[in-house]
Amino acid sequence: MSSADALKMALEKNLDLVKIAPQAAPPVCKIMDYGKYRFEQAKREKEARKNQHVVEIKEVRLSLNIDTHDFNTKLTNALKFLKKSDKVKVSIRFRGREMGHPELGIAIMERFAEACEEVATVEKPAKLEGRSMLMFLAPRINK
């Protein structure tokens, strides 16, 4: 049908003529209440935003010569972050002569990852970048 006839038909019904596929030959149009359509679309988007969870990256800093109690405190914090379904960035900063012993940092990182094993998976294993060693943990998805 011609666009003039379609527009006349839409005006008779007190609705709008909306192009659905303008690239098609001939263009596809639909008669609808455009204001109501936009309102419902905005409502759906708002509902989708409400239900989504933004994943944050929380950081836990360890040191090369960390004591057991300090280690357990940092571990408790990391577990708390993971239970809130946030990702955790575990970092160790090497100072001075500590740079000569990266294997000690890897051992601490592995111990930390092993302790978090029940609630987290290692997203990015421990890697030395400059003077700091980084490891990323992601919450484990239970099905």
Sequence stretches where pLDDT stays below 50 over 5 or more residues: none
CATH top level of the largest domain is: Alpha Beta
Molecular shape: rod-shaped
User: Quick check: average pLDDT?
Assistant: 90
Question: What amount of the residues lies in strands?
Answer: 25-35%
How many structural domains are formed by the residues? 2
Sheet/helix structural class: alpha+beta
Describe the structure in your own words:
The protein is α+β, with helices and mostly antiparallel strands and 143 residues long. The protein folds into two domains: 3-51, Translation initiation factor 3 (IF-3), N-terminal domain (Ubiquitin-like (UB roll), Roll), CATH 3.10.20; 57-139, Translation Initiation Factor IF3. It contains four helices and six strands. A four-stranded mixed β-sheet has the order 3-4-6-5, covered by helices on one side. It has a two-stranded antiparallel sheet with strand order 1-2.
Any key phrases for this structure?
143 residues; alpha+beta; Ubiquitin-like (UB roll); Translation Initiation Factor IF3; 2 domains; two-stranded antiparallel sheet; 6 strands
Layout of secondary structure:
Blueprint: H1 3-12, E1 16-21, E2 28-32, H2 34-51, E3 57-62, H3 68-83, E4 87-93, H4 102-115, E5 120-129, E6 132-139
Summarize the structure.
This protein is α+β, with helices and mostly antiparallel strands.
